[in-house]
Design brief:
This protein is α+β, with helices and mostly antiparallel strands. It has 26 helices and 14 strands. Helices cover about 45% and strands about 20% of the residues.
Length: about 625
């Protein structure tokens, strides 16, 4: 994230001076900071001036991380979506409940409704925005549409559960009647509050695959009365968010009949223990999850915890965005192996966020904490010597409680702050290492054509000279020619090398490579100057290209030039799915696409450059 310093004379400082002209500090904080909705104030260019507490709760970024940052850099997923938002705002002065897609700091998508208005403060215009998170509402609606026949036809209780938070996001009328809750009450519950577990029973660590999982449990109604249920549990994924679908049947009468024949409740307890295990463990890594972590912190025994290591995987979001979540999951599993190896038998190790882990230690000292941090870095180095697909980088923050009056939550905050200080020093180098791997992958694949990048650079140099392209911009143009398609490292081979035409879904996946490449380039100091060009290199002269729908001179000249050269090279070279065209046929195709796909004048100049070429 690129941050800019803000002082009292510019940016946020000037805004606060202007703000004092129109409202009191007390009124501002009551109306802005304590509203439950996300509230932001930004410049017309998109720089955050102020955010409220709900911004941190919803998007994960602290106020300090947000202020001075550009909204596109920190939260907006789709640059084109933000461009359309600004277009409406500039033309109409306000926008009401536009659906938008943002990045959470942990890397997952947040779907929200954004309402904004231009405000004049101290002679300058700013954007005041309100953002309402509707992710669960949208995801639940899409997930439930798959199972609508169950809701309409089956008389059993049905509930849908967010697997990450454990929160119930929807329930049918039978479930409301059975448990005695209103719909509003039910949708505020964590699923764990529905079942009661005997705290004195022995622990059992058996695990089950949730696909087609059938088990029995003891549940409680709102009034506290218990009843036995049989639960058919399955998983569903909507926009990368995982949900549990529970179909619940009351089997109290059956259990009473069984109790008359069998006094041993071992099987029932086993299923209850399995359910508790699932609720307290991360399904990917097998580690304790945030639910268990917070349970430990609120336990009386937490007073013995006096040391903590907060660990963050560097560059995980970049890996997920470029190569895919399978590669990101592999990185998480590798990090889990390192942290397990460096943790003691009595330590509590948990995955507490998308890329964050925590290690809690009791009755420890600063010397041991520093030793553990060094061991983690040594194990990471050892892992990387084995030449993995993606190098692993873990930033560690350490905190030790010397004073008994310091709370466990203050200790965690200190460790978290220390981790982010370290991350400022290491994250850029980690991202650069990942980008170098991706660049090597691009060169190795070359997308089915021998020396494609070499030919492209050579033709572009000739073309640029003929078109009078400024010599001082030539270096970036050559870099762009070589790495404009770096986003294709995130496109599956089955699509990239498919013989014949792509279907609509495959076309959509292929088109993502512009945005993937844009995000990769932003993460690398070497490629950052050409990030915007990579995003726009598939725009068409007539506005029918992607992803932004730019047209004519709105498209950077570098992109207009590359589209012509890239098309010519693609047509005149063999590809896995077709043989090469002749030079004459390729020229005819370029001429036919003047004014639609290509800049007509640049086509004329390019044809002069290659007029001496033959088959």
């Amino acid at each position: 994230m690129n941050r800019r310093s803000i002082n009292s004379e510019t940016g946020a400082g000037r805004f606060r001076n202007d703000l004092s002209l129109v409202m009191s500090e007390e009124l501002f904080f009551k109306a802005f900071n304590y509203l439950p909705n996300v509230m932001t104030l930004s410049t017309l260019e998109g720089m955050f001036i102020e955010t409220n507490a709900a911004f941190t709760e919803t998007l994960g970024y602290t106020r300090e991380e947000a202020i001075g940052s550009n909204a596109l850099d920190i939260v907006w997923i789709d640059p084109g979506e933000r461009a359309r938002f600004l277009d409406v705002l500039n033309n109409e002065g306000s926008i009401y409940k536009m659906e938008a897609h943002f990045w959470h700091k942990e890397g997952h998508e947040v779907i929200a409704l954004i309402s904004s208005v231009k405000v004049m403060i101290g002679g300058s215009e700013y954007i005041l925005s309100s953002i309402v998170d509707i992710t669960d509402r949208i995801d639940a609606q899409e997930a439930l549409n798959r199972y609508r026949f169950l809701f309409d036809e089956v008389q059993d209780s049905i509930i849908l559960i967010n697997m990450k938070s454990g929160r119930i996001v929807d329930a049918n009328n039978t479930a409301l009647r059975t448990y005695g809750y209103t719909r509003d009450e039910m949708l505020k519950l964590n699923f764990s509050l529905l079942h009661g577990i005997d705290k004195n029973r022995k622990k059992h660590n058996a695990r089950k695959n949730l696909k087609g999982f059938l088990f029995e449990s003891l549940h409680r109604r709102k009034d506290g009365s218990p009843f036995y249920v049989e639960i058919s549990s399955s998983t569903t994924t909507v926009k990368k968010h995982k949900y549990l679908l529970w179909v619940i049947r009351d089997i109290s009468e059956r259990k009473q009949a069984e109790a008359l024949r069998c006094k041993d409740a071992e099987e029932i307890i086993k299923h209850l223990e399995e359910l508790e295990y699932i609720s307290e463990h991360d399904p990917l890594t097998g580690l304790n999850n945030r639910t268990y972590f917070e349970k430990v912190l609120n336990n009386q025994g937490a007073s013995r915890i006096n040391g903590i290591l907060m660990c963050d995987i560097d560059g995980l979001k970049l890996v997920n965005d470029s190569i895919g979540y399978q590669a990101g999951d592999a990185l998480l599993i590798a990090a889990t192996g390192v942290l397990k190896k460096c943790s003691g038998a009595n330590d509590i190790l948990a995955r507490v966020g998308g890329d964050e882990f925590a290690v809690l230690l009791s009755d420890t000292d600063m010397s041991l904490l520093n030793k553990r941090a060094r061991q983690i870095q040594q194990e990471v180095e050892a892992y990387n010597t084995r030449d993995p697909l993606i190098p692993l980088s873990i930033t560690v923050g350490v905190a030790f409680k010397e004073d008994r009056t310091i709370s466990i939550f203050e200790l965690i905050k200190t460790a978290d702050n220390n981790m982010y200080r370290q991350k400022l020093l290491s994250s850029q180098s980690a991202r650069s290492a990942i980008v170098k791997i991706l660049m090597k992958t691009l060169e190795a694949r070359d997308f089915g054509t021998e020396n494609h990048a070499v030919r492209l650079v050579k033709l572009m140099r000739i073309f640029a000279h003929k078109a009078g392209f400024p010599i001082w911009r030539m270096e970036d143009l050559m870099l762009f020619s070589q790495f404009h398609d770096i986003g294709k490292v995130g496109v599956p081979d089955r699509i990239l090398y498919k013989p014949g035409s792509l279907n609509q879904e495959e076309k959509f996946e292929m088109q993502k490579h512009c945005e993937i490449g844009y995000r990769i380039a932003q993460a690398s100091p070497d490629l950052a100057p050409i990030a915007e060009l990579i995003l726009r290199h598939h725009e068409w002269w007539n506005g029918q290209g992607y992803p932004l729908g730019l047209q004519g001179s709105e498209i950077p000249i570098e992109c207009r030039m590359l589209s012509i050269v890239d098309a010519y090279d693609a047509m005149t070279c063999d590809r896995p799915y077709r043989k090469a065209m002749s030079h004459e046929s390729a020229v005819e195709e370029l001429m036919a696409c003047r004014g639609s796909q290509f800049d007509p004048e640049l086509v004329r100049v390019f044809l002069e450059c290659i007029s001496g070429l033959d088959d």
